[in-house]
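Thread title: Can someone regenerate the structure for this chain?

I was given the following input by a collaborator and told the matching structure tokens would be attached. They weren't. Posting the sequence so someone can regenerate them.
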Amino acid sequence: MKNTLEEYPREGNQYEEIKSYLWSHGASSEAIESFKEGWLEYLKQYPGRIQPHAWCSKCGEKLDVEDSILAWCPALQELFVVDAKCLSGYMLDEMVSRPLSGITHVELEDLVEKDDVSEYEFDGLVESLKLWGVMPVTIKGCVYFIMSEENKEIKIGFTVGPVEKRLSSLQTAHPYKLQLLGTIPGTTEDEKSLHEQFANIRLQGEWFKPHVDLLAFVAVIFKGQSGTII
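Best answer:
Regenerated them for you:
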């Protein structure tokens, strides 16, 4: 039997290549998750050591970023990363596309707000772009807290654009009036840390129960800010 250590891609410096090796050798989902977290930390510490690449959503092949296309279908609320050849194979009438190279977090947020792309798809793409070295791990902006006035549920989210714009977009898709409780300067990592801190009261996605611990946290950090109602 061939030694699996001999098969390990020692020269590989791409997340998807190493993840594929781990999956093929029976790594658990927990092990893959630990590897992902370690990889993100590595990229944060040494951002210049990884040559950015993308992976095709259709054929799974590695792509040069300059040859990669970000495509989305508003009707399906899905995002795809492809090259020109694979894009032609989707045959979806409402498919929209743009070059992946140079994409920013603000532009991706606009897809959610203007093109009805789901936040789940958005979060998945941003994570992939970070893992591929296409987008920096640490993105600065603000963490916001928005409350539904009907049931008092609270959304903890992140944006690099005007939070009022984000609120307006969320309100369009929400049946009840939403209120901005406040914002704090931060990064996507700060947002993730808060999600982990209140994981036991998470409802779905970025929405959390109005538990006393979360309400107390919000009341403390936004004490004195006008418009805050808890």
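Residues 140-221 form one domain.
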